[in-house]
Amino acid sequence: MIEIDKYIDYLESPELRLAIKVQTKLISLIRQFLIEVGFQEILPVIISPVTDPLTDYRVRGEVECYGFKYQITKSMIFHKQLALRTFPKIFCFSPNVRIETIERQNSGKHLIEFVQVDLEVREATREEIIELGEKLFAWVIEKIKKQALEELQLLKRNLPEFKPPFKRVSYQQALDSFGPDFEAKLSSELQGPAWLIDFPIEEREFYDRQNDNQSGFLVDMDLIYPEGFGEALSGGEREYNSERIKERMLRKGIDLKAYDLYLTFVSQGLFQSAGFGFGLERLTKFVCGLNDITKTRLFAKKPGIYSL
Ligand code: ASP
Ligand code: MG
User: Fold this and answer.
1) Are strands 113-122 and 89-97 parallel, antiparallel or unpaired?
2) Which mutation among 79, 81, 100, 118 tests ligand 1's pocket best, with the greatest number of atoms within 8 A of CB?
3) Residue 91, SS3?
4) Whole-angstrom Cα distance, residue 119 to residue 126?
5) Can you give the residue ranges of every domain in the chain?
6) What is the H or E stretch that residue 283 is in?
7) Which CATH superfamily is domain 4-296 in?
8) Residues in CB range of 135: below 8 A, 6 or more apart
9) For residue 169, how far is the Cα from the chain centroid?
10) Mean pLDDT by 10 residues, the chain (308 residues)
11) Residues 208 and 238: beta-carbon distance below 8 Å
């Protein structure tokens, strides 16, 4: 049950109010940066016959209307790929719903409903997207320090300057240095943000492209925050070949019928592309130096907790 008194305290909390004020400025800076470098903003898709499988394609929110079944967006990955037919560089402030496992309830990082800055670029390589991500991040941090000076002082948050190029660590190096639960440990040791690259094929979804020169590994990346804040974004180059997409789906144990519609579009040809999804609440959490993701948005929902 929702405890109304506690909920009202949450809605009126000064820390939440400051974080959301910072977030509004972050949104406007991100939008400004991306539009200046030639991106077209598109509106979010909330329901669709297909969505990102993410971990388990059968775990998802559904709505039925007019006798049709729609899925609630986990990510707009497929829509991003199709939107490249309309524009060569697109981005979206995209609301995502992911029914995370209950173990993630108190991670301080997971919400079942969140917004990501989701972008995709026609014919881009991972290298180009890494460069774009670094520039975006460094610029947004530089600007927010000035634009949200008062809020950040009240939150007692002191942000350094982050200069690209950021450090890179391969998935294998991270695993060797810190063991299977490496993300938190790696993040705590970092002095600045770092790219975690080259995930093994089984660690990611079927749409990230396999490296032609390194079988079993993907041309993909995560950006990891320093100070233990963990993952900032995920992305990579995309698989665009119809046969290879089907192989990758089967390898993941996905019933191809579930992606019939997507595969029909794929058979018409997909652009080669690359992109990423950058979590807005996590960025707000990092910029404000907060310990809990529920302080970064109104109506935050943790896995397994009934909430407004
Ligand atoms: N679809 C990915 C995610 O939402 C992001 C991306 O690869 O663009 O995690
Ligand atoms: Mg991710």
Assistant:
1) antiparallel
2) 118
3) strand
4) 13
5) 4-296
6) helix 280-288
7) Bira Bifunctional Protein; Domain 2 (3.30.930.10)
8) 33, 164
9) 19
10) 95 98 99 99 98 89 96 98 98 97 94 98 98 98 98 97 98 97 96 97 97 97 98 98 98 95 98 98 98 97 96
11) yes
- CA distances to 31, 188, 270 from 231, rounded to whole Å, are 21, 11, 28
Cβ neighbours around 91 below 10 Å, total = 25
- Contact present, 173 and 198 (Cβ < 8 Å): no
Half-sphere exposure of residue 48: CA atoms within 13 angstroms, side-chain side: 21
Give the C-alpha separation, 220 to 126, whole Å: 7
Which of 77, 84, 112 for a ligand 1 pocket mutation test, highest count of atoms within 8 Å of Cβ?
77
pTM of the model: 0.97
Give the 3-state secondary structure of residue 143.
helix
Q: How many angstroms separate the Cα of 285 from the Cα of each of 61, 163, 281, 294?
A: 26, 20, 6, 9
Question: Cα(69)–Cα(20) distance, rounded to whole angstroms?
Answer: 34
Chain CA centroid to CA 167, Å? 20
Give 49's contacts (C-beta < 8 A, 6+ positions apart): 68, 69, 70, 71, 261
- Determine the distance separating the centroid of ligand 2 and the alpha carbon of 233, expressed in angstroms: 6
For 213, the 3-state DSSP assignment is coil
| Contact criterion met (CB below 8 Å) for 117 and 90 | no
How far, in Å, from the CA of 2 to the mean position of ligand 2?
29
| Burial class of residue 8 (count of CB atoms within 10 Å of its CB; 0-12, 13-18, 19+) | exposed
116 Cα nearest atom in ligand 1? 4
Q: What is the pLDDT of residue 95?
A: 98
